[in-house]
Design a protein that fits this description.
Blueprint lengths: L1 E4 L10 H12 L2 H7 L10 H12 L4 E8 L2 E9 L11 E7 L8 H15 L4 E7 L3 H9 L3 E7 L6 E8 L6
Parallel strand pairs: 4-5
Antiparallel strand pairs: 1-2, 2-3, 3-4, 5-7, 6-7
Length: 175
């Protein structure tokens, strides 16, 4: 698996083929988006909605949208923040880790998380954080099994949804 930054054209648009691939990836995760409420109709996620969501993410300083490819095929996507909006928070964040639903439970998410952690580790970061919706038990199980520890509870900054905050030391042995 390789990670690449999402290509952005002048004016912030994504190349059409990439946008189509990413939209298909998002659409494959209907169950997650029904839970998150990020799209009005998770059964019909459109390219325009995905383009708007990615543009919003990329407008944040230190945000990256990373595409995970295996054998040339898009298998996952991650959105990271090098710096949280709270200046007192020293850690980078994983804002979203999304794997093609057909590949769930096949190790792709674990590998993608490891690659992200390695990027932060190489950059000299000591830990990484993330927030998951309190109601997302599968995500809690996934991240806990990767060595992330519960550090608290909060509401997300945009939609005020209850979240579980998790953190992983990057110099600790891998899970």
């Amino acid at each position: 698996m390789i990670l690449e930054q999402i290509p952005v054209l002048d004016g912030g648009a994504l190349p059409g083929t990439v946008l189509t691939e990413v939209t298909e990836l998002y659409a494959s995760n209907r169950e997650f988006f029904a839970l998150s409420g990020d799209f009005p109709d998770p059964e019909h996620i459109t390219e325009e909605q995905v383009a708007a969501a990615l543009a919003e993410e990329l407008a944040r300083p230190t945000a990256e949208v990373l595409l995970a490819r295996s054998e040339g095929r898009l298998v996952g996507l991650a959105i990271t923040l090098g710096q949280h909006p709270n200046p007192e928070d020293p850690d980078p964040w994983i804002g979203l880790l999304l794997v093609d639903a057909k590949l769930h439970r096949g190790g792709v998410g674990r590998e993608l998380a490891r690659l992200i952690e390695d990027r932060f580790r190489t950059a000299g970061r000591e830990a990484v954080r993330l927030a998951i919706l309190e109601s997302n038990d599968q995500a809690g199980w996934f991240w806990t099994n990767l060595g992330y520890e519960l550090i608290g509870y909060a509401e997300d900054l945009e939609r005020q949804r209850p979240c579980v905050l998790m953190r992983k030391e990057l110099n600790a042995p891998s899970a």
